[in-house]
Design a protein that fits this description.
Layout: H1 2-20, H2 24-27, H3 48-62, E1 74-75, E2 93-99, E3 120-121, E4 137-143, H4 150-155, H5 158-169, E5 181-182, E6 204-205, H6 217-229, H7 258-270, H8 281-290, H9 293-296, E7 301-302, E8 316-317, E9 325-327, E10 345-347, H10 369-374, H11 384-392, H12 395-406
Helix pairs in contact: 3-7, 6-7, 8-12
The structure holds heme C (2 copies).
């Protein structure tokens, strides 16, 4: 317990320090004055039972796993919060690896233990899974994106995504996102409150992951436990293959129960979108639409009336995303194919709580929002015309747009 406490408070300190690092909030009159702590704020009006689950899930999300609890055999970090500190973005990240031939095509089986580096190991494993020395190896860094507001993301009605995809296809200006159809790769969740997906079920809407590779929050939690921390669950009962052939860790069998997965899942679903206040709201939103940011970063989508959490059913979800895959061009490509998504395709990331980030885009390559916008443009990017429109704005308008985006 004590160790957990120290871990949590050091995270809190790191978070506080990173807020202190951002004095711009006071200096720029265009900037919002909101610097509320976005962490652990649940949707309003939830029952006391849900509040209890939220608090349990919050603690589980922060807690570090120990070897006796099933950490490893190979892992990347020991806690969810290591890569989603304060429910936000990073500082931990995942490094993906792929081997390309001379024509830029992925060489199958060049990486026998999968395309993700797992730099730490735990007995009985004796070595990490790191980049082999082979010609054509390409690495892709992916920051852990924020997790707040993801209940809204799960709740958005599929018909909304279809509508937006059709509207984009009809535009004729190069912007044409598509739903990433994915397959459920886990055992069924014994609790079917949120879905009754079965292993191998195809055609689901991929909403989670930077390329939208997973359909639901609970499957993502199970995937993250297994892939990032080496924690198996009834949804993902098997440790991932690794160079040692170690089949298990210090805790025999499945490491956590389905209730644990669902508690963390419910916590994530109940996380509120950090409150937004911006003094030039209307002018900012108008510019955001005028330069076509809003075509992909759709400010709001309607949720499914049947969504199991009442505060998220049949509401406007202000997620600033279409949850569709877009070809973002050569410069943003990481050459890494995931499901149907190509190297250059990325899901429009929800612009939720991005004012709390200290870097933008999948690998944090942009250190300002202005840079993030500029990096949308490269050969083949669907966003090239939007960046042109951004360049046509006056300097003041650009500053206002950036401030608006920084207030989200
Ligand atoms: C080593 C860093 C790391 C750890 C540890 C980690 N994550 Fe993540 N998380 C990521 C990255 C990177 C992504 C994007 C993954 C992708 O593109 O498939 C992600 C994506 C997610 C998403 C999808 C967000 C979205 O909108 O696309 C959820 C939900 C999530 N993680 C939850 C968790 C939970 C719960 C845990 C703990 C069990 C956890 N993560 C542990 C790095 C991490
Ligand atoms: C064609 C669709 C499209 C358009 C148009 C578009 N974006 Fe994006 N945006 C994306 C995608 C996809 C990404 C993720 C790219 C990556 O991470 O490599 C992204 C990433 C971002 C990010 C980084 C978010 C994060 O989590 O780090 C910001 C900020 C952003 N866009 C703002 C804007 C603004 C402002 C505009 C208008 C000038 C705009 N975008 C226009 C699709 C689009």
């Amino acid at each position: 317990m004590k160790i957990n406490f120290i871990f949590i408070s050091s995270l809190a300190l790191a978070w506080a320090a990173s807020c202190l690092d951002a004095p711009v909030l006071e200096q720029d009159p265009q900037r919002p004055t909101v610097d509320e702590d976005p962490t652990a704020r649940p949707l309003p009006g939830i029952s006391s039972t849900l509040q209890l689950t939220f608090d349990k899930g919050d603690a589980a999300f922060e807690a570090r796993f120990f070897p006796s609890q099933g950490l490893g055999p190979l892992y990347i970090r020991t806690a969810c919060a290591s890569c989603h500190a304060g429910d936000g973005k990073g500082p931990g990240f995942v490094t993906k690896m792929v081997v390309l031939d001379d024509d830029g095509v992925a060489v199958a089986a060049a990486l026998p233990f999968g395309g993700t580096q797992r730099p730490f190991f735990q007995t009985p494993a004796t070595q990490p899974l790191s980049a082999p020395v082979v010609d054509g190896l390409v690495l892709s860094t992916r920051m852990g994106p924020a997790v707040f507001g993801r209940g809204y993301v799960e709740a958005v009605a599929e018909s909304e995504l279809q509508r937006v995809a059709e509207e984009q296809a009809a535009r004729g200006d190069g912007i044409s996102g598509r739903i990433h159809r994915v397959t459920y790769n886990s055992k069924s969740n014994p609790d079917s409150t949120f879905n009754n997906h079965t292993e191998g079920q195809a055609g689901l809407v991929g909403r989670f992951g930077l390329k939208g590779r997973i359909a639901s929050v609970d499957e993502f939690v199970a995937d993250a436990l297994q892939g990032d921390i080496g924690i198996t669950s009834p949804l993902r009962p098997t440790e991932l293959p690794n160079p040692d052939g170690a089949l298990d860790d210090a805790k025999a069998g499945v490491d956590v129960d389905a209730d644990f997965v669902n508690t963390v899942g419910t916590y994530i679903r109940l996380l509120e979108i950090p409150r937004r206040t911006f003094r030039d709201q209307e002018a900012g939103a108008e510019l955001f639409a005028r330069v076509d940011c809003a075509v992909c970063h759709v400010p709001s989508l309607r949720t499914d009336p049947e969504y199991p959490l009442a505060p998220l059913a049949d509401v406007d979800a202000p997620i600033f995303s279409d949850l569709l895959l877009h070809d973002m061009g050569e410069a943003l490509s990481d050459s890494f194919v995931e499901g149907d998504a190509s190297g250059a395709e990325w899901k429009t990331p929800p612009l939720i709580g991005i004012r709390f980030f200290d870097g933008w885009l999948h690998d944090n390559r942009a250190s300002t929002v202005d840079e993030a916008i500029e990096f949308h443009a490269s050969v083949g990017s669907e966003a090239n015309a939007a960046v042109d429109l951004y360049h046509q704005l006056s300097e003041d308008e650009r500053a206002l747009l950036v401030s608006y985006v920084e207030s989200l």
